[in-house]
From TrEMBL:
Comp. bias intervals (Basic and acidic residues): 1-10
Superkingdom of source: Eukaryota
Location of region: Disordered: 1-90
Gene3D superfamilies per the UniProt record, alphabetical: Vaccinia Virus protein VP39
Organism: Cyclotella cryptica
Polar residues bias (residue ranges): 45-54, 61-70
Name of one Pfam family that matches: DOT1
Protein name from the UniProt record: DOT1 domain-containing protein
Amino acid sequence: MSLSHDEIEPNRNVSEVATPTKRSKSLASRAEAASEPPAKGAKMSEQSNVSSFSPLARSANIVTPSTSVLTPKKNVESTTNTTNARNARRSLTPAIKKEAPKEKKLPFGGTSKSIAIANNVRRVYRIVNKHTGSIGGNSHGGAIYGELTVGSMQKMTNLMIEHTGLGKESRFIDVGCGLGKPNLHVAQMPGVEFSFGIELCSTRWMLGIANLHQILQRAKMDEVEGRSTDLIGHRCVLEHGDIREANFFDPFTHVYMFDIGFPPLLFHVLSDMFNKSSSEFLICYHGPKLMIDTYEFDVELIVQTPTSMHGSSEVHTGYIYKRAQKSKIAGSRCKTKTFGVPCDPLFAAAWKTCKSGLDGVLKHVAQHVDEHIGSTEKRITRSAAKKAHTKA
Ligand SMILES: C[S@@+](CC[C@H](N)C(=O)[O-])C[C@H]1O[C@@H](n2cnc3c(N)ncnc32)[C@H](O)[C@@H]1O
C-alpha cells in the first residue's frame, strides 16, 4: 500500500506559453499556481487525530510544475455557479494562499511548486493503488490509456475550483472514466454533488467499480465506527456505456475528459453534444486550435497547466475552457428533466442513485460487482464452454 510514485511529481522545466486563438487573443496571460511549502515524502496516518473536516485543513504536499491563466478571474464567473464560485474561493483562498509559493529548484534550471493533497483524497488513492495501482500509463492491453498522477489531478482540481467554481453543488462527468480516479478525486475534494463516469471498455469499468466498491465499503466502515475526520465522499457513480448514446451533457456543470487518443469522429460528436447542452465548463487535454478551430467546441480558454502522467514520463497540458455565449441558441435543448434540472435520460438513473446516499450508492455498486466480478456461479467452465460450443 504505497503512494511513493505519486508523492512527488516528476521534475521538469515547464515554462508555459499561452497559445492565443481568435477568441482568446486579447486575454492577458499570467502564471499562477496554488501552493504550499513542499513536504517531500510527507506521509500520513489514516488514524491521525486532527479534528477538522475541511479537506484542505488536513493535507500533505507534493511538487508540481506551474500554471498559466489566460482569462482574468473576474471574467470567468458563470451565471449559475456564481455563488458556488464565490464560496469556493472564500473557503479556499486562505488555505491555499496564506503562504507565498515556494519554488523548488530543479536540475537544468527548471522550477516546480508544491501542492497540498487532502487526507481523504490520499485515503482514496491508497485504496485504489492497493487494488489497481500498477495499471496506468499507456500500456494497459496495448490500447491507449492514460491517467494523471494524484498531484496533477489535484492541480487540475484546484484550477477548476478557483476558476470555474467547482464545488459541492457541481455535477462532474468524466467522459471515458477508465479506472475512475478523476471521479473519485472530485468526489472527495471539493466533494461535488454528482461525480459521474462513463467508460466504454468493460475491463476498465470493472476495475473502476471494484475500486469504487472498496472505497464505499471504507466509507461505510467510517460511518459505523463514527469517524469524524478525513471522511470519504461517496457521491460517485461509474457506469459502463458509450457517451455517444447521450444527446446532451445536461445535467453536468463540468465536462471532463482525458481525451488524448480520442478519435476525431468522437470529438465531433462531443462538440455537437456540448454546444447543445447547458454545461458551462469543459476540461480536457487539447488546446484551442484543435478544440475551437477544428472541432468547433463553443468555448473560450480560461487557464492551462502542464500535467504529468501516472506510470509514464509523458507531459500533457490540461486546458480549462468555459462556454462561449454563442451557442445559447444553437440546436435543440434538452427537454427531459430530473430533480427539476435538464438531464439527458442516459444520466437520470445514476443521478438518482447518487442522491440516494451512501447506502444507495453502495448497494448499486455492490450489485454491479456481484453481477460482473464477484459471482463465481456465472463463470464459464471448461464443460460449459464445451456444451455451448456443441450447441452452436
Ligand atoms: C485515456 S483514458 C482516461 C481515463 C480516465 N478518464 C482518467 O483520466 O484517468 C480514456 C478512456 O476513454 C474511454 N472511451 C473512449 N471512447 C469512449 C466512449 N465513446 N464512451 C465512453 N468511454 C470512452 C476509453 O476506453 C478510455 O478508457
